[in-house]
Specification:
The chain is mostly beta strands. 0% of the residues lie in helices and 31% in strands. The chain has 2 domains: 43 residues, N-terminal domain of TfIIb; 50 residues, N-terminal domain of TfIIb. The chain is built from no helices and 7 strands. It has a 4-stranded antiparallel beta sheet, with no helix packed on it. It starts with 11 loop residues before the first strand and ends with a strand. Its main location: nucleus. One of its GO terms (biological process) is termination of RNA polymerase III transcription. InterPro entries: Rpa12/Rpb9/Rpc10/TFS, Zn_ribbon_RPC11_C, Znf_TFIIS.
Amino acid sequence: MWFCPVDGTLLLVRTQEDKNYFYCTTCPYGCPIQHKQQISCLYTTKKAVDDILGGSAAWENVDRTMARCPSCHHHEAYFMQMQIRSADEPMSVFYKCVKCAHQWNDK
């Protein structure tokens, strides 16, 4: 990894006129690459993300309401209310479509 000597930002590589250059995305710094560099790439897989609402068990025994799904436009959804902010803020309402299981919240 190469960093900008001016502001410390990670330098990116750009090819221009069959030459490679390091360049900074936040300032005008640029530098031609004079020597071949050993470049290796590390690819990682995305970590499975946990459901913040508690998974499928959280949606058991919840009430239904008339709400239009933004994904499939079905007119009925499950809903639950949770206090996710400070006590002086109103509760957040989360919905899950009865038909397609798309989840959304009221903002």
